[in-house]
Each structure stands twice: as C-alpha cells, then as structure tokens.
Amino acid sequence: MQQRYATNPAQIPGMSTADLREQYLVPEVFVPGEITVVYTHHDRIVLGGAVPAGRELVLPGYPEIRSDYFLEHREVGIINVGGTGTVTADGEVHTLVTGACLYLGRGIRDVVFADAGEPEEGGASTGAQFYLFSAPAHTAYPAALVSPGEGTVRELGDQVTSNRRTLNQYIHENGVKSCQIVMGVTTLHEGSMWNTMPAHTHDRRTECYLYFDVPEDARVIHLLGEREETRHLVVADRQAIISPSWSLHSGVGTAAYSFIWAMAGENQAFDDMDAAPVTTLK
Questions:
Q1: What CA–CA distances, in Å, run from 218 to 21, 211, 233, 235, 237?
Q2: CB atoms within 10 A of CB 180
Q3: What is the average pLDDT across 259-274?
C-alpha cells in the first residue's frame, strides 16, 4: 500500500510538474495479476485497482490501516472497467459486467476478485479490471450491485460549450446506501471535451477521478489548485487523480472520454459544490 500524505494550498506555488504528479496522480492503477492500492490522508481514502488476469486475487488487510481485514472498519465501491468478472464477498458471488458497480459494506471479511471466464490470449486487457474506492465506515450497509445504466441518470451540459455528458449516479444519498462514499460514472458525448465547466470545489469532500476510454493517442488536461493559483496534470487512459477538498477540478480532453468520480467526506450531497467561474481563474 502506497501512502500519500495530505497537502495544503500553500504548497502549490512551489511545486514542480514532477511534484504535482507525485502527490496527485496515480499512474498505474491496473497491474495484471495484482491488487494495487494508494492510501491518501485526504479523508483517509484508499483507491486502487484489481486485475485478476486469469487467477483469483484476495483483498488483504494492510498494516497501514491497522485492521485484521480490509473492510473491518471500511466500505468500498467497485466499478469494473474491463471484461466481465466476479467479486466474491463472504461466499456470495457478484458478477460485474463492464460498467457495473458493486458496493460492499463494513464487516465483510473475505473479498476475492476473478475473471468470469478464461481470458483470451494476451490476457489482462480482455479480462476484468476492477477500480476500488474505499473510505472509513461507522456502520454496515448491505452489499448492492448496480448494472450499467441502472443508476440515477442525469444529462448535463451543452454541446455548444463542449461539455454534453451523461452522468450515472450509483452510490449516493438517493441510490445505493453508504456511510460516506458517493460514486458514479460520467461519459462525454462525442464532440464534447470538458468534464465540467465552470470548475468547482467542495470544501467538505475529497474527490478522486479515474479517467478511462481515453484513446491511446489522446490525453486529458486535469485542472487543480486554487482558482487564483491553478495548475494542471496531463493524464492518460486508466490513470487516477486525487483531488483534495480545497482544490478545484475540471478537465478537458483531446478526445471524448469517460471517468469514474468518487467522493468521501462531510456529506453525500452531490450538488454541494462551490462554483469557480471561468472569469475568476488564473
């Protein structure tokens, strides 16, 4: 488990591109045959990926979280961005097709990731790729599986401003119940590039992004920092961003793409955000 310690806005002006990438970018989320996890001290979030690549992967407890098993004091949201796979939670098998979301609550001891069938030659790219987002939990909520398109669907933005997008809320206050986690998937329409504009902050929650369906020769420019001290990161396919509560966040791609957004913190109100109008950005 890699650890990332919390940062504050005063550090931004003195940070180089390498410093920014080291603090806020997770470049290798999906490693074939492994579970990779990053612990950020911003709201005690753990994010990562599990790629079975033809074998079973058991989610361990980690010394850094001082628990006998991973979900002893935590909950986790899981979204599959690869081929069909299974997540077995205390003996109950959940099948996740591409784009499905699974919530597992506090107290589940055994979590096992696997492909649903035999991988094709070359392996991992055709098998399951599970994205994990975890936060501390104070009580237990039941496991829940949501198929793609079965969440709360919101159509946002406008083609005129290049941010027409479909947002699918899975884990949220009016959907799958959780202690802290709010999680879903946004897909930009063809011809749209901005994932949100104007940018915003929500000083009460940390948000993490996994950018995917980014063409190999394309990139997403992710904005971060304070509105009068902005910086950017260049992000490739299936890379993740940690966005502290004080940081604005918006992004524009050189082609259309999708992203998983996930938050944890003070509340679960999706619309609790503070806009950063374009005219205030520097």
A1: 18, 12, 14, 9, 8
A2: 22
A3: 81
